[in-house]
Please model this.
Amino acid sequence: MRSRVRVWLNRTYAENVFFMEQLRRNPSDRAVEIHATHGDADSPVLAAADTADLEPEGLSPAGYVEYALDQCRRRGIDVFVPRLHQSTIVAHRADFESAGTALLAPTPEGTAVFEDKATAYDAVSSVGVPVPPWFRVRTADELVAAVEELEAGGHKACFKPATGAGGVGFRVITRAPFSLFHLNGFPGPHVQLDLVVDALRRAEHPVNWLVMPRLEEPEVSVDCLTGPDNRLRLAVGRTKKGRRRGFTLDEQWLEPARIIAEGFGLHYLSNIQFRMFGDEPVLLDVNTRPAGGLHQLSLCGVNAPWAAVQLALGEDPGVIEPPFLGQDYAVVSGPKPVLPSVPVPREEADVMPAPTLPVEVEPVDAAAAVLPL
Model:
């Protein structure tokens, strides 16, 4: 009987409860035990794990590496999937290997390129992947100049932090004056240019924003699995247009993703996003980690998390072709159990199992399921 595999996910997204479920339901019928750590005691990933621990607060990146190495040694971790402090952790890959732990994460060079979106756009355009026009902005005057140039070309300007994940900090520039119209319905991403300029002029420090045209749908998010030999094992595009989601193997999306994943050392799981600029697909963003929606590939008969763990363990699954493409679907929220809210001593929290029966909990918006359309 083959030994069980011990996997650790640190401070990850709530959606990764599905990542964990896929590891347990792996097609190799291999026993998997999951350790999870987080800074939020109510994170669903802690309840979904076999063992869980609250992470210490206030650690420097270097201090976190020491904490992580200790976790790996004490817990007997075979595969570590780092999200928090990923770039610092991968720089210590040899130390984790000495502790008997494989890192399911890209090379240090790969993470460095994509930590800053402007640096990333420069890098990928140099290898022939199309990118949208963009401006790095730090001051109010630079913002106005960038917006005016984009608007002169007939584009609607938007901005987002040059570093960061997801849609945090994304805003669309409008010149419409603030009115009651903007207070109707739910808050949106639009922000008045004069308000942004005023905020920048009053700020104590410069910002680090990327200003670019607002790109059009569809958005295609390509999930990639790449081996440590820089060869792609899997690439499937997940399409998004409004509520509707779907899948694609169209090379107009997969080929540029392949160039990026193989060319920049994005080993194991990465997520490369594209949108339309006019009639041309262009790069939107690169995530050097598993996407929150990776589990949706199960609708195509693919268990990407397990294939990645196999690669990390040196058990190459080979090139993976989806046996079919799932039908279009929509993403909805659903409840997930959390641990009891009563404070638990660390020694007990370390080994607290996930609840096996439904409990009354508030819905977790990020823990999304899929429904067919």
About this structure: The first strand starts at residue 5 and ends at 10.
